[in-house]
Structure formats: structure tokens, C-alpha cells
Fold each of these.
Amino acid sequence: MKIIEHRYSADLEWVEHYAAQIGGKIEGNFITTSEDFQTGTRYFLDCGDGIIAYYLNVEYHRNFRLIQKNLNQDFVGFYYNLTEGEATVRSGHFMYNVGRWQYNLSVIDGALESRYEVLKGSKTFALCIFIKKSMIKAFLKRNNIIIENIDTLIDSKVNTIVRFDRMSNESFHVLNDLKKLEVGGAVFDLNLRGTVHLLISNYLKKIATKRVIIQTVNENDLAKIISVQMYLIEHLGEHFPSIHFMAQMANMSESKFKSLFKKITGDTANAFFMENKLQLAKELLEKKQLTVSQISDHLHFTNNSYFASKFREHFGLSPKAFYKQL
Amino acid sequence: MRKLTHYYSLTPEWQLNVAEQLSTELIDNKLIVVPNHIGDGFFYFSQIMEGISVVYADLLTKEPLKIIRQRSDNELFIFHFDLSEHVNLIKINNVDYEIGSFNQLDLAILDNQIESAFKPAVGERTIALRLLIDKKLLHDFILKFSTSENYFAKSKSNKKAFYHYGNIDSNSILLIQSIKTKSIYDLSFDSFLKGISLKVLGNFFNKFYEPKNKNLQLTDVEGQALEKTKNYLTNNLYGPFPSLTFLSGMAGMSESKYKSLFKKHFNDTPKNLFIEEKIKLAQKLLRSGEYSTLTAIMYELNYTKLSYFCTKYFEILKRKPTDDFVKKNATKKVT
């Protein structure tokens, strides 16, 4: 196991230290490392307004333990973590599994010391956003967003922010779009900044709608709902498997399953399925390998016109028009 | 016709005047709601980052409205993305340009040194996203992407500093469409709009600076089929040309589609490619020293007239067959 002690902060002060710790170098906005322990891309960007984005798309070839001890604790870290493999975050008395199918969004106060462990063979795609606490207030003010008792919320003496959650489907797709782009360059920077804004927007929306905080859901139930979600994602090409079937899979009554699914994902099972299906259809169209009707058949839509109307309803544009203007 | 004159700046102060003319008020320095007797809708302004701001308009006018943009001192480019499902007009130098997703021309890039007027169609919902970008910033972009085809440079040399670019790419349309569904009163709207704007801009530059040769996009299946027929041709050089009907059948396409794709992909027609490969093979045979006459080689390659063969040979390799010919018995005599 390779143990690394590092720090983050809401400016670029941490980068050099971090690069040295993982045995890498800074080239432009990239942090490059030797290929023995991990391969992939690490990219950081100052987004202005006291916001730093740190983009990772790496595969680990050894077990890693990253200990985060921050010198400058005046920031909050948002970790959008889509690791395929095993990773955990531990701090004090709690420990959570993180990754694409676990808690994939953690919000952790910079004042907190935390330990991130990731196992060999894991592929991590993550976007970390560090925001200065003082800037949160200024940011909200500049963007005319009003949240009550913001002062107590960001005061780490009163309130240490630690939250483990699952990102919304929308956020996931925003990240997925980012992943498709080639890293580096002005175009990527624009997209990265855009993505950061969209993620913040999404997070704010979530706060505003006061959706249930997932940490409060029974862990067992959560795991089951997520496994159903996983099943749905893996079977996007097929018909919707029926609530009855899924409820059985999750060992719940149908009504409990339905309400819990909605609580956790923010969508009904059917809407979640359809949305991901349409996103997949969009990706297939982007690849320009299949025609509209081939995709419609491939994804088991009853017929082309139903597919087209669903696509139009969701994206506001027909699949043909989308294809033409790619 | 109601007229509305305004100018743009990267900072919010320009809106005050607009609000005054509409006899309404500016909310939070970002939002102007159009009063009911004129129409239904709003203008939303936000500063995204240093040098980039955005105006998002969603309105349905009840009477003809002409929005005249005056030139201002700031050096700006205005990217106008129009997602209305009908035709609006942009007037520049007394020429009306149609714009709107209806006629597929939905993106205009304007120089703010030149006055323009925007006339939304009456009784229809107009959706437009305008990005205001400091020219200095674009200059940086241009330098970063040192492409030979630099249209900002081109547009400067043009007498009109205006460029009608054409259409928005699909992904940006989806992004702008998604704004429609959000409420401007949501606290997440501002970040959302900023995020979308940046991504739209990213898409634009991405598309713009992408090398043009990517135009020909074959699906894998088509590419494989073309390769297959090409291999067939090169493996059957001794016979006659197998005919387009046969080849297109093999590729599973119509003849015309096959021909045009083949030409685009290999930069040559199937027949020409076949002849070229054949002549190259002829050269190999000529030099091999295993034939005693040219005629033998000619027959071997399914030519019937020596003169025709010689002409083709010269056409392609710019030398005569006899220059390359090594006679069979000649080599024998030497040994």
C-alpha cells in the first residue's frame, strides 16, 4: 500500500506539494506521474471566484491511501467520484464506501482530516471542486441566491460540513459529457468551468428542494435500491422490467420500493429508466454508426415514431434533426 | 411599431436604460420582465466571468417590436443563438437577415461596432441566447488555436465586420433547450445559465477549430465494406474489372452510394484504382524477368491490345514498359 499525505485548498498552493507527494511533475495544468503506480490524467484549473476544479481520470495499479490534512482549512470540497472499483472515505468515527455505485458525491469541510483509500485496479473518474468558504457567501450574493442562516452553515466551529450523497442523474450526465472531451486547451477549460457551474446549480437545486439526505436512509435499503439502479443501467437495451419484478429484486413491497426509489434518485423508476435510455440513444447517435431506426430497434422502442416522440419530448429536438446538425 | 434602443456592455448598467424604456424595473441587476401590454417574457443578464457575459431572452410579443442595438465603446463580439421555432429578423446595414431554428440558420456573430436591429416575430415565442465576449479574449483564443483558417481575421478584412455563421451544433441546441424548462426564479438558475453558456461556447470553438477533413464520416460497417471491396480488387488484378454492380452488391450499397463513398474514402474511383494497381503489378512482372515478351505479360493481365496497355502504363508511371522490361532469355544468356 502506498501512503500519501497531501493537502488541498481553494487556491493552487496545494498542487506542487501534491505532485511531489505522488511523485509527479506539473506540466501546464496537468500533473503527470510515473506510470508504475497509476496511469491517466490529472488536471487542475482555477475557475475564478475562489473555485478550484481538479479533474482526475486515472487507473490505480497499487493500493493507495491518501491522507488529507489541510493547512488552509477555509474551504469546502465537493467530490464527484465515479470510481469503478473499491474506494472508501474515512474520517474520525465514520467510514463510507464511495464510487459510482456507492456514495458518489461527498461534501467535506476542509477543516476535517480524512483518509481516502482506493484499491488496486480501480478506475477513478472524479471531479473535485474546492470552494473558499468566504467565497460561498460572496458567490451566493453575486449570483443573487439567498439561503437563510448561511453564516452558521459555513462556520466550521458551529457546523462542520460532511455529507455523503448520491449525485442526481442530471449531474451524472453532465460529468459524463465532460469525460468525453479531450483534456486540456481552452475549449476544455470552458467546458470544465461550465460543468462546475452546472454542478453547483444542480447542488443548489437539490438544497432548495430539500430532498431527503441519503445518509438518513437505512443502509441496507439504500444498497438494494442502488443495485436495482445498476440493473436498470445495465439493461437499458431491454424493456422496462416492471415494478413488480424490481420490488422482488429489492425484497420490498411494491409501494415501498416505489417511494424509496423516488426518494433516493429523485425520479420514478420508469422515468429514471427512460431518461437513461434516451441519453444512451443520444450517445449512439453521436457516434454516427447507427441510423435512427436501428437505434430505436436496438433499444427496444416499440416503433420509430414512439422513439422519436420520446426523444423530442426529452431533448426538444427530433433524433433526425439532432443527427443532421452534429 | 415600438422601438427599443440599447447598447451592450459586459457589466449590468446597460439594462437600466432598457428597463426605463419598457417602463418597468430592473430586478437584482439581472432581470427585466417585459410588461404585459407589450408582451410576455423577460431578458436575463448575467456576468459569467472576466470578459464574458450572457443575455437570455424568452419572450412572446403582442405587438411589433424593434430592438435596436447601438454601437458602444466596448470591443465586443456578440454570439446570437436563436432557438425560436419561426423566423426572426436581424437587420444589419439595412439588410434583413432571417434567423431562427426554423430555417436552420440560427447562429449569428455580430460585431458591436456595427449597429443592428432585432425584430422578433409577433405572437410567437422567441428564445435567444446572446453571449457577449470581449474581443481581447477572443484574440487569445485565436492565438491559442493557430489554425490556418481563421475566420475572425477573415471577417475583419471583410468590409462588414459581421459574419453569418450558419447553424448551431446539436449538443448546444440541447443545452439551450434545457434552459427553457428551468424557472428563472430558481436559485440554481444563475449558475445553470452560466454553465450552459460556457459549454455552448466550448462547443462552438470545438466545432469551429475542428479540422474540416472530418466531414466524411463513415460508419464502421461502411468502412469495412469499402475495405473489403478494395481488397477484392487488389486480389483479383489478373482478371477483368468486376463491374460496379458486382462491387456495390458486395458492399451492400446502391451503386451510386458505393461510387461516391469509394471516391471520397480512397480519393479515386474503383476503376482507376483497379487500373493503377494493375499497372503496378505489371511493372513488377516486367522486372521479374520471367516473361519473354511484353505480349505475354499483357495477356496475363487480361489486356487485349498492346498499344492500349503501353499507353496506360505510360500514363500512370510516366515511363515506357520497355524501360522496365527484363527479358527472360536475356537473363539466361548472361548466366
Amino acid sequence: MTDSIVRFTGVTKKYLSQAALNNVSFDLPQGKITALVGPNGSGKSTILKLIAGLAHPSQGSVTVNGKTAHRRIAGEVAYLSEMDALYPFFTVGETISFNAGLFADFDVQKAGEILSFMQLEPDKKVRHLSKGNRGRLKILLVLSRRAPLILMDEPLAGLDPLVRDSIIKSMISYLDLQQQTVFMSTHEVSEVEPVLDMVISLHEGKIMGYEEVENIREKHGLSLVDWMKESIQNKEARI
Amino acid sequence: MSQAFNNTQPIYLQILQRLCRQVVRGEIEAGEKLPSVREMALHIGVNPNTVQRVYGELERLEIVETRRGLGSFITENDIRLNQLREDLKSEQIGSFIKDMKETGFSREEILEGVRRELLNTKGERGVKP
């Protein structure tokens, strides 16, 4: 078994009285691509924010590489937010330089390679980019970092199939799984299935299932989508 | 982008089987270098870890040899390659016979059916796969 890079121990997160996560514990293995799946409001973004140190658990602990997650963890964690976090007045090139200045582990040469792979124009202003190209640029910014942990919140949401395809391909090309671990939330389950190692299914703030994708096929003879449905139905049957 | 995979079998196993078939068909020759893990992953649209597992498995099966710093190569050991050919043959025939028996056909009916089918298609462009 590989070492874990993230550990949740009995984590509960409440927003006012509303519980977003309810006593969640799991270990995230190093060097794998793991997806976090589940319906809207199941707590996916909350889990990612807790790891990135952008939120704090109400109870329990979250550690990254053995250290408690906090805001200054940004040096070890590359976080792709589901929100648009780009400055519209920058050009693509300026956005890259800006991020290179922000993060010590930013690899400008790699950014250049991904730029041409994604066919983005460096002189174009971010505000003039299509939604698809903004999605590509956001991926470029996280993949250019040599951070040991990459978090992506819905990297494929709302993008057309061509863009999704180029994003998945760039992940295969530019991730270094010897050194890096990816944890992403997604709804586009069937599309990312071939690139996943592990999957965590979340429902109403609880983990319903945690499996190796290959095991799901082997043991259960199910595609990921079917497994997801089943893991949620099982829970409903139990109530 | 990715080739279609069926849902009931692990992806690594499906890639493994495809590669073995390509070797048996001669599409990949003895001694030929396989693409790097990353190239292969990109080509078929899967996780590099999956391809790594396929290569590891092929090495364990002695179909592939990994030469340090050079990459992975199909073995030049004819005995092993013939063995692979025989294995795939008996595997296919085995599963065919199992299906037929489960459908209720006797040994004689299977033999007769296969013989007639092969004779019928003789002279045509090959036999159905």
C-alpha cells in the first residue's frame, strides 16, 4: 500500500447549523488520481476546501503530508477552484507570469509546453477568452506547478466535449504521478473514468463508497456511474 | 479520444488482451519497442498508472522485457511467443465451448457445426473472428 498524502480523521464541517460533512474519515493514497463524486450539495467542494486550508473542520482533523491543513499550505497544494479566479485584465501570458511569481514551484517551461498543447494565444486578454479557453488556462496554471498535491474542483463542468478532451489529455501528458497526486471532484464520471485510479462516492456529507476503479469493474462488474448509483441507493435502502 | 472499454472488466486487463492479440497477429513484432508508458497512456486515453500495470504484468508473463534506460521490448523468445499464441487459442476455444454447452449443445453438435461453418466459409475471405 502506498503512503497517504491526505488524512481525514472524524471530520465534521458545519456551516451555521447545516452539516456539510458528517464524521468523515479517509486516507488519500499518494501518486494516484482520485475522483470525488456525488450529487450537488454532497460535500465535495467542502472536502477540497478543507484540504486546501480554505476552511476549517468544526470537528476532527485534516492533515496533508502529516501536517495540519492551513492557509499557508498553498505552497504544497495546487488548487483549481470551481469559481473563476482569473484576472480579466491580464493577458494569458501575464496570467502565467503572475502565477510564476506567486508560486515557487511554478515551472514556466512546462507552462509554455502546455500553452502550445492547448493552443492558447499568450497575447489574448483573459476577458476575451471563451469559457472553454478559460477552462484550459485554469488547468494550465495547476498543471504547471510541481506541487505534490493537485486539487481540482469540477475542472470539466460546463465545458464542451472538445475542451474536456483536451483537459483530460493534458492531465495524462503533464502530470507526474511519481511525484504528484490528484484529487478532483467531478460530475463527468464516465468521461474521466479511464484516467482514474480511485473513486470516493459522497452523499449528504458521508462517504458511501471508496474503491479502486479497476476493482469496481472486476468485483462488481459495474461502470463507475452504475456503482455510484448503487452506492447511493444502498444508503437509501438502509434508512 | 479513448478507445471504448467494456464496463465489466478492468481496463488494464482489456489493454493487456489487446496488446497480446496484436503480438499474436504480428502487428507488433518480436523485439519491437513498445511506446513509453506516457505515450501509450495518451494514445489510448488512460491513466499512466494503468499502463504501468499493463507493462508490469506483461513483464511478469515474460512477453515483455524491460531494458533499463531503453524501454520495454516484446520478447524475442519464440518459445514464449508460440506459447502465447497457443494460450490465446485455447482460451478462445474454451470460452466458445463453454458458451455452447451452456446453451445446450452437445459435443457432436459443436464439432459438426464448427466443421460445416469452416467448410462453408472456405475460399471466402477468412473466417469470422
